[in-house]
Design brief:
9-stranded antiparallel β-sheet; 3 domains; alpha+beta; DNA Polymerase III, Chain A, domain 2
C-alpha cells in the first residue's frame, strides 16, 4: 500500500469511531475483528466495525486526495482520539502500515493490520425500506427489552419480534415469565415477521435519537414540515436486517425459529381492574425490594381491595407492609409477584397512571396505559404460601 494521509475534525472522527466500535468485540480469535476497518477514497473515510453478527458502518468527510484501506485496533484508536486535546487530527499511514496520529504537540505511532484480513460486510438490500421515527423505535426497544430471555434454552426468545401487519408495528419480547408488547402505527403495507437479537437492538438504541424534535422543544412551534422527524429506515432480506440511522448503517443477522404465539397468551377477560399512579406503585415495590436479594428470594404479596393496594413482603431479613391508594373495580384479589419483574414492567410504563387487569391469583397480571394499548405487559404470578 502507498502512503496515505488525511486530516479531519477530531470530535467528529471520535464520535464515528465510538459508534462503530459498538460492533467490535473486545476479545476475538481473529485480531482483525478487534479493529475498525478504515477505507479512504479521496475526501470520504468509511469506518466499519463487525463481529460477524452485528456490523456498523458510516462515512466521514475528511481532507485528502489519497486512497487506501487498513485495520486499526478499535479500543486503542478510540482512546487516543478521546484523549487528544486538538480540534483537528492528522493521520498518516506508510507502506508498512505504521500509523502516525498527530494533533497540536501530541503524536502517537501505532501499527495497523492489512485490510485483506477483514471479513466481508453483509450486503445491504435495495428493497423499499420501512420508515419509523427514531425516537419511537428507541422507545419500543427500551420498553420491551426487559422481557427478553437471558438464557439460551430457546435462542429465538433472546431476540425481540418485529410483527408488522396492516400498518401496525408490534415489538414483542417474552421469557416465559413475562411478556412485553409495544404497539405503534406506521406507514407500511407489507406483512413482515422476524426476530432481531436483543444485543443488536441494545446497541442500535444507543445510536437512535432519544427525543421527538417537536415535543422536546415546546417553545419552538415550527411545524413538522419545517422541522421533519429523524427517521430510521429498516431494510430486510432473508438473513439480515439493516437499520439506516443518521448516516450509520447497522446490520444484524436475524434469529431463526418459531417465536411464541404471543397473541394467544394475552388474556381478554378480567374480573378486577385497578387504576393506580405509576410512580406511587413503583416506589412502593422499590421499598419492599430492600428485603429481597439472591439469598432471600420471596414474592411480594399485593392485595387489591377497598380502593387501596396493600403490599407485603416477609423474608429472613425482615418484614415490610405498605399501603397506597388505588381505584379498585371488581372483586378483591390477592396475588404474589416477582418484585424485580414487576419493577421492570413499571419502569417501562411512560404514563402517569396505569390500568392493571386481573382474573385470579394463578392467572397473569396485565398492565396497560389508561387509554388504548400502546403497551401491554404481562406478569406470571407466584404462588403464595399460607
Amino acid at each position: 500500500m502507498n502512503n496515505i494521509n488525511f486530516n479531519c475534525n477530531r470530535t467528529k472522527l471520535h464520535e464515528a469511531v465510538n459508534n462503530v466500535s459498538k460492533a467490535v468485540p473486545s476479545k476475538s480469535n481473529m485480531a482483525a475483528l478487534e479493529g475498525i476497518k478504515l477505507s479512504l477514497s479521496n475526501n470520504t473515510l468509511e469506518l466499519t466495525g463487525y463481529d460477524l453478527e452485528l456490523g456498523i458502518k458510516t462515512t466521514l468527510e475528511v481532507n485528502s486526495s489519497d486512497k487506501g484501506e487498513l485495520i486499526v485496533n478499535a479500543r486503542l484508536f478510540n482512546e487516543i482520539l478521546r484523549k487528544m486535546s486538538s480540534d483537528e487530527v492528522t493521520i498518516n499511514i506508510d507502506e508498512k502500515l505504521n500509523i502516525t496520529i498527530s494533533g497540536n504537540a501530541t503524536t502517537y505511532n501505532i501499527s495497523a493490520i492489512p485490510a485483506t484480513e477483514y471479513p466481508d460486510f453483509p450486503s445491504i438490500t435495495n428493497e423499499e425500506p420501512i420508515e419509523i421515527p427514531q425516537y419511537i423505535l428507541r422507545n419500543m426497544i427500551d420498553h420491551t427489552k426487559h422481557a427478553v430471555a437471558t438464557n439460551e434454552n430457546k435462542p429465538i426468545l433472546t431476540g425481540q419480534l418485529f410483527d408488522i401487519e396492516d400498518g401496525l408495528f408490534r415489538m414483542v419480547a417474552i421469557d416465559g415469565f413475562r411478556l412485553a408488547v409495544r404497539n405503534e402505527r406506521i406507514t407500511a403495507s407489507d406483512k413482515l415477521n422476524f426476530v432481531v437479537p436483543s444485543k443488536a437492538l441494545s446497541e442500535i438504541s444507543k445510536i437512535l435519537s432519544k427525543n421527538d424534535p417537536i415535543q422536546s422543544n415546546p417553545e419552538n412551534q415550527e411545524s413538522k414540515a419545517d422541522k421533519p422527524e429523524l427517521l430510521c429506515k429498516i431494510y430486510k432480506d432473508l438473513k439480515h436486517i439493516t437499520f439506516e440511522i443518521s448516516g450509520y448503517y447497522v446490520v444484524s443477522r436475524l434469529l431463526t425459529g418459531e417465536f411464541h404465539n404471543y397473541k394467544a397468551s394475552i388474556p381478554e377477560n378480567f374480573t378486577t381492574e385497578v387504576v393506580i399512579k405509576t410512580k406511587e406503585f413503583t416506589d412502593s415495590i422499590d421499598r419492599c425490594s430492600l428485603l429481597i436479594n439472591e439469598q432471600t428470594k420471596c414474592p411480594i404479596k399485593c392485595t387489591f381491595e377497598n380502593n387501596s393496594l396493600k403490599v407485603n413482603c416477609k423474608t429472613s431479613i425482615g418484614k415490610v407492609d405498605d399501603v397506597i391508594e388505588a381505584e379498585v373495580n371488581g372483586d378483591p384479589i390477592e396475588i404474589g409477584l416477582n418484585s424485580r419483574f414487576l419493577l421492570d414492567a413499571l419502569k417501562a410504563c411512560d404514563t402517569d397512571k396505569i390500568r392493571i387487569q386481573l382474573q385470579a391469583p394463578n392467572r397473569p397480571v396485565k398492565i396497560l396505559p389508561m387509554i388504548g394499548d400502546s403497551f401491554v405487559f404481562l406478569l406470571m404470578p407466584i404462588q403464595l404460601k399460607n
